[in-house]
Amino acid sequence: MLATQDVHPPTGAELGRELVRLGQERDLIDLRFSLVASEFAKTDEYDQQGYVSPIDWIRFNCHMTSNAAADRVAVGERIGELPESMDLMVSGRIGFAHMTVMARTANALGDRFDESRLLDKAEENSPGKFHHICRHYRHAADRKGFESEQAEQVENRRLSLSTWEDGSLLLSGVLDPVGGAALRTALEPLARKSGAHDDRDREHRLADALVELASGGEQKAQIQVTSSIETLLGLAGAPAAEMEFSLPVSSKTIERLACDSSIARVLLDSESVVIDVGRSKRVVSEPGRRALKARDGHCRWPGCERPASWSAAHHVVHWIHGGSTDLDNLILLCHRHHWMVHEGNWQLVRGDDGRMLTIPPTVTFGPSSRGPD
Asked: What is the DSSP letter of 196?
């Protein structure tokens, strides 16, 4: 008879070490894949085969999602600018997911990108947390670019409604991070289980919450934001602000929310020490709001007649910059026009006759490529 040898299954620690090793091998393969993908993107092979883009070709032929294919191309294109990050990845101290965030940040900032400022953060944090940190870094390095991206996301909001044959309503759409945070803030409390016998799944509860929200009154959801004083004032180099259920948001968005929204604020000093917690003291009082609604009646943007119940109290001179909450410094603006004044960079001034005048944002053109005549 052949002697039998006991075979012991691997321990949890051994399995863990094997997963780490395989993960590092996968990261190196992804890095190599990225280099080849970026080179492939420079050719016209995808066009010769009838694909709309190199990313589309990679998605189909390499069995990947569009986002995964785009990430590989982005890393491959930026790898020459990320030598220290690549060294950390090769040594196993960060993963390919960190490299993706680093490359995306480099793409967004261009010449303003400084790899060395992010290396320690990449090594110390998970890819998800590092993505969060890089959003703050982008705001500090290029506030106007960050705000412009947020404004574009708002302009790209979409919601389509179509009715099925049985009368059911099909919803499909996309919201920007701030709009999504506002919706989630309103829905999450209503979507909680109502008791031990509530056997609805989460999607069912969210759908019920949306119907309940649409059937409710004028009560606004209270959103929590965490911001530094420097961010609130829009100072150069300040990080973005934190918002529950959202990625970091710009100082312009915080300025609008601080104008009249139902927000719970947490203010930090330069060393991230909490110096103030609570609801904004400059939000218009209920008697003041009633007087404002009686005076204005509707949104005061020229030509807009959105009712007062759909409008917010806007400070002509924001209280952050010394403006008061007196009635003379307040006007009603609907959500769209309130956003245009803050994030959209429109100006709203009161003329000598009391009418409101709108001034569109300044358009800056780049230097002409043509030499002197």
From this structure: T
Beta bridge partners of 223: 263
Which two tokens mark 52? 């709309």
Token pair for residue 40? 């492939």
Domains of the chain by range and CATH? 18-141 (no CATH), 158-214 (no CATH), 284-365 (1.10.30)
Distance, CA of 360 to CA of 148 (rounded, Å) = 15
| 153 has a pLDDT exceeding 60 | yes
The 10s digit of each residue's pLDDT in 201-232 is 999 999 988 988 876 544 555 667 888 888 87
Helix axes of 12-41 and 83-90: crossing angle, nearest 10 degrees: 150
Q: What is the pLDDT of residues 84-103, one digit of tens each?
A: 999 999 999 999 999 999 99
Place of tokens 């959003």: 135
Handedness of CA 117, 120, 122, 124 (dihedral sign): negative
Report the pLDDT value the prediction gives residue 64, as an integer from 0 to 100: 96
Pair of tokens at residue 200: 């609805």
Residue 58: both structure tokens together: 């990679």
Q: How far is CA 28 from CA 16, 21, 93, in A?
A: 19, 11, 12
Which range among 141-150, 214-223, 282-291, 333-342 has the greatest average pLDDT?
Answer: 141-150
Nearest Cα neighbor of 115 from 85, 142, 138 is: 85
**CB of 98 within 8 A of CB of 127?**
yes
**DSSP one-letter code for 100:** H
